Each structure stands twice: as structure tokens, then as C-alpha cells.
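Two folds, back to back.
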Amino acid sequence: MVFEIKNNRLIKYTNEPEIKKIIIPDGIEIIDKYAFYGCHNIESVYIPESVRLIYWSAFENCQNLMSFSVDKNNAKFYTVNGCLYERLKNNSGSLVKVPEGMEYIEIPDTGWWTSAFSEYSKFAVINIYNQSGNRIILKRSELDRNGEYNSIFMNNVNQLIYNLDTSVHISRAVKTSIMMQMYFSHWSGFHDINNFNAVFKGIIDREETETIRKILDEGKLITKRNINTYIRYADENEHYSVFDMLSEYKEENYGEF
């Protein structure tokens, strides 16, 4: 293996097509930015005890990378399901990097670096779990369809999920999907939807009748105060299937008023 090393800093690995498993030498303390950029043949990376700093772009564009492993005595980094995490001072973790070759990802209750995901990642589905075991599903097809799959987008998803910041810039379709999943799975700390009016109008615009039915059955977000607004909105925008659902719900629950 050909490494360029200076002062315990791994500056660059020279790609060798026949090498699929990378073992970073013990004694390396820093893995520099773009150190492994474009090493498409790499399938696994071993990180020794000595590594204490990894730059965000160190493993970018390694499209066949399937897993990381870390020496058990490393105080700074660890792995879960092949993904690389940073150990924080409060004993929580932060996702550093998802191997770009992975197609199915499970993430425990944690935040992540903005570079944890990249445009080269192959994942089809990400399952995100909180401490109660509730799950949010992010589908690659949905993210691609909205043209927003990049590190900035994933950082905004992080803000929405872990900081409950509904003001972040995410397309309405994806934001609605995430928020509704959080609401119906009773995601920890997510008890109200401050901008529900805009979210629900987006659901009406896409005529997501299954989601609307779940909201109506749940019986908390659609009220006597706001149902006329949504009926009128559905009628004005020619969403007649939703108009019928809401009108029927109004009649069953509130009668004419």
C-alpha cells in the first residue's frame, strides 16, 4: 500500500486497483482531506487506535466502499453497522461517513456530519431510529426526485429531525413525508406541527389520500376551526377526491355549521 505520510498525517493514498481492503498504518493521527478521493476499488477501511482526526472529505467518491472498522481502543471513532461515527464528550455519537457502496442503512439516535452522505452514495433506503425505537424512512428515490440529495440537504434533514427545526429548506414533498412520519410514530419531542397549514395544503395539492385518511383517523390535526379552510382550498384547486373526503369527515364529525 502506497501512503503519503508527513508528521503522522496521512496526506494521500495512491490508488492500487488490486487492493480492496485498506489498513491505515498505526501511528497515523490525522487523515487529510481527499486522502482517498476517487479510490473506487476500495471495499473496506480499517482505522487504527492512533487516529484522532478525520477530515470531512477524506473518503469522498469511494463508490464501492462497503464498511469501516475501527480499533476497539480508539477513543475518538467507532463503527455501527459498518458506518463510521465520532464519539462525543457526552457519550453520544455523530455519524461521520456512510460507506458509499452501502444500499441499506440503519442509523441510531444521533446527529451526523454534513458530509456523512454524498452524491456518490448508492443507498436506496435510510432507516433512522430514535431512542424509543420509532423510525423515519428516507427513500433515495424520493430525495432524487426532488433534486435535493446532497450534504446540505442531509444537514437540513438533521436539523428537522434532531432539532425539530421546521424552518429549514427542504422541498415541501420531502418535508411533509418526514414530518408526517415523525408525527404518526410519536417521535420523541415532536408533539405539534407549527406550520401544519402549509404542510397539509401541500398534501392536498399532491392528493395524498392515504396520508389524509391517517390524519383524519388520528383526529387531532383537523379541527372544527380549520376544516372549512381545507375544504375550500381543495375545491378551489380542483382536488375533488380530497374535497369529498373532507366534506364527508365534516358532516360525520361536526354536522353543518
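---
second:
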Amino acid sequence: MNKMYAFIYPLIWLFMRIFHPWRVIGAENLPEGAAVLCGNHTTAGDPLYVVCALGRKRQVHVMAKEEIMRWPVVGWILKKAGIFGVKRGTADVAAVKEALRVLKSDERLLIFPEGTRVREGQTSEAHTGAAMFATRTGAPLVPVYIAPKKRLFRRTTVIFGQPYHPEFEGRKPSSNELQAIADDLMARIRALGELEK
């Protein structure tokens, strides 16, 4: 258990419980051990909702944009807590290696396949990182839906879908296969939104 993560979790939990409470659907779907948790991304607070929905004992490594990791003090704390940055728009080899290390260490990884915040009603093409991590390590993909409408003091729903292993032919999927896996993943994430109603 990461000590810094365990230290800051109660602080995050208390803040979120007061100002941005949440409710969880599908917690029983969460597998033990390595998993690639993949969520839709509409607000900057989405990782916090997932972290709180997982609970203190289910620690997760979050792949965040590199800019956050440069913030004074905050970036240092996040790094110590197991969060790591990725340089968007480039082939960030260091971030890929860290993601693979996390999964091979039988730990959880949280990633947002769209790569940036996407407003409700808009769509964007999913990046293939999550698909690559899952096919390289054998870790299951877990679709996660975070309700896009968030209001102070009102509960936001977080839904965990069924974990699954993507299907592909051969030992190393082609770029087209990875994109197909990524597109299917986003369709599964969006479909979870129906459970909120």
C-alpha cells in the first residue's frame, strides 16, 4: 500500500463527501489485482470521483496530463502517491513503461481513453493506449462511467462495468485492431450511462 496515497485519501474523501458526494453502481464488478480502469472524461474532477468510488483499500495509479505533475508541491505529492504524467500528442515512452510496470506489478491503472475532457453531447476518437496496455499485459479492461452533470452537494453517479479481455488475432494486435478495441471500449463506457437512469 502506497503510504502517500493512504495519507491523502482521507483528505480527498472528506472534501468530496462534503462538496461533491458520489454514489457507486457495479462495485461488485471490480476485479482483484491488475486492471485497466477506463472512464469518460467531462470534468477535471473525474479522477477524484473514481478514486473515492474505489475506496481506500483499492488503490489506483492514475495517468494524468504532464502539466499537472509540474505544479509546485501538488505535483510532488501526486508523484509520491503513484500518479504519473503523460505528454499528450507525443509517443511518451516513459509513461508507457510506467503504465506497463503498474499492471505487471498486479496493480490498477486509471486512464481516460479520450485523452482530454469532452463535453456532454460531444464525441472524440478514443486513443489506443488502454487497448495496448491490456493486450500487452493480459490485464482486463474495466469500463467506468462518470455522470457528466455534476453539482455542488448533489451526488454524482460512478458506474463500474463488467471487466473483459479484448479479443484480437495474433500475439501483437495491429494498429487497426487496437483502434477497434478502443472504439468498442468507449461504446461500452457510454452504454453504462443507461444504468444511471
